[in-house]
Amino acid sequence: MITIAIDIRLIGQNRTGDEAVFRNLTREVLTADTVNRYLLLTDKADSESTDRILTLLGKDGRLPENAEIVVLRARNRYEWNFFSVPLFLSKRSVDVFHTQYILPSFVPRRTKVVTHIHDISFRMFPEYIGVADRLFLSFFIPHTMRRSEMIVVPSAFTRDEIISSYGVSKDRITVIHNAVDPSFLVEPTTEMLALAQSRNGLPESFILSVGTMQPRKNIPTLIGAFAKIRKEFPNLKLVLVGGHGGRHYDTAIDDAIKSEDGLEDSIVFPGYVQQEDMPALYRLASILAFPSRYEGFGIPLLEAFAAGTPVVASDIPPFREVGGEAVTYFDPMDVSACADSLRMLLVDKTAARKAGTAGKIRLESFDWGASAGMMISCYMSVSDRTD
């Protein structure tokens, strides 16, 4: 038996992407591994946060006997990384420490480190993040890469990016694919569809886009493509789910909307959508559009596949890796190509149905249970290593 500490601070924080990955992967690991000891590290001491964690990770609101929540008080990420975690690891015997991106300033050599890196967009597009974040990452990421016994990534693309950008050897990187949240595998009822539509102010017919609205997400290209086809489909709207005006918001989105008279009336910003409504949104959408210039994986592809919704996505390596032949691809820098792809699936209903069916088949290649098995094997493998 070994002791594994997992940084779960993001779980229950209503984050997309990385929070969903750690929530699902940790839950499946705890379900599958009844032998090893798990310490779930959080900086939230209130009972509401604890109850939420238990609901998300436990069964019937309870964690398995070999897992416990450990609260390490910290006022911010700096105190967490420089004091709280190092102090805990120096006092507690931990065989493996699993975190995301940022490794604390000091980890005892007896503790092996597994670090999750979802993508390195911060390295490829540093101009899109703030100066403070840039300095923080430029200090901690190289340190993390050097100290980690194993780096876990969601795709071969991200693995290769890390190798070329940081010189990490291939044998220190493990590809563990993401999958879809189990809630997306349950067909929404008519009542659930109607409630989600009403609660989020959704139109009857729409193209859906899901994710943060950072510049690398390339939303202005999608808006430009939608503008080209909207007169052909007068009842069609574009629904952009994400933080309108949030952190690292792409102001070019607003410029793109203002570029054509009346376009603003055809674009819907529902803001934050409750997780329980998301499967319904995909099911209601005519198409999922995913125009990103850069991603590490692309979970919305899988969420659309689960709903049988056809996907139009930018032709970038991670999307090819995830979507295979089930996606209609376009050059992310070509507005007209994006418009043509959308138009084709809106007009050709047979092609749209075939794409939906192909997506469901493709989805079978991604499973959290299988990924959890790989994660547990990774823990065991690094714990056996000697310095």
| SS summary, helix count | 15
Rg over CA atoms, rounded to whole Å, is 21 Å
Name the quaternary structure.
single chain
Q: What are the secondary-structure elements, in order, as H or E? A: EHEHEHEEHHEHEHEHEHEHEHEHEHHH
Helix residue percentage: 40-55%
Number of strands: 13
Relative strand content: 5-15%
Structural class: alpha/beta
Which key features would you list for this structure?
43% helix; alpha/beta; globular; 15% strand; 6-stranded parallel beta sheet; Rossmann fold; 387 residues; 7-stranded parallel beta sheet
Structure write-up:
With 387 residues, the chain is an alpha/beta fold. It has two domains: 3-179 and 367-383, Rossmann fold (3-Layer(aba) Sandwich); 182-363, Glycogen Phosphorylase B (Rossmann fold), CATH 3.40.50. It is built from 15 helices and 13 strands. β1, α1 and β2 (37-42) form a beta-alpha-beta unit. α1 (18-32) crosses α15, α11 packs across α14 and α13 (335-347) crosses α14.
